[in-house]
Design brief:
By secondary structure, this protein is an alpha/beta fold. It contains four helices and five strands.
Length: 130
């Protein structure tokens, strides 16, 4: 019985050590483009659900990315949500278009979770010249 309890404790500690702590996930800040016509409250609601490490700021100088969120008719009926992610500095790095806002935000979250951030990119040493 003692061996079983000891083995369980070791497995529990090993699992806890292998789990990635939330503190390692760098929070990202995005600013909404002024031309966006989607309700920012709805975007924040979906961001909180899909990627809690992302928040919206009103200060473009403190943002990692800008998010353009537009809604409009497509092919003459209904409407699609079009979200575009713009890197700090002006380069468009991602765009998605879906019928549901929740799916568009989920796509953006997947991109942001996989995208290298400016802080990590600037922390890389410059390539050595030969």
């Amino acid at each position: 019985m003692k061996k079983l309890a000891l083995a369980s404790a070791v497995l529990l500690l090993a699992g806890a050590a292998a789990a990635k702590p939330k503190s390692e996930i760098r929070p990202l800040k995005i600013v909404m483009a002024r031309q966006s016509n989607v309700d920012p409250v709805e975007i924040i609601k979906h961001l909180d659900e899909k990627c809690p490490n992302v928040s919206i700021t009103t200060n473009p100088n403190h943002s990692d990315f800008m998010l353009y969120a537009g809604w409009g008719p497509a092919a003459g009926w209904g409407g699609n949500y079009r979200l575009m992610v713009i890197k700090h500095g002006g380069d468009t790095v991602y765009a998605t278009e879906t019928v549901l806002l929740s799916n568009a935000v989920k796509n953006v979250c997947r991109f942001l979770d996989s995208a290298p951030t400016q802080a990590s990119a600037s922390a890389q040493p410059p390539p050595a010249s030969h």
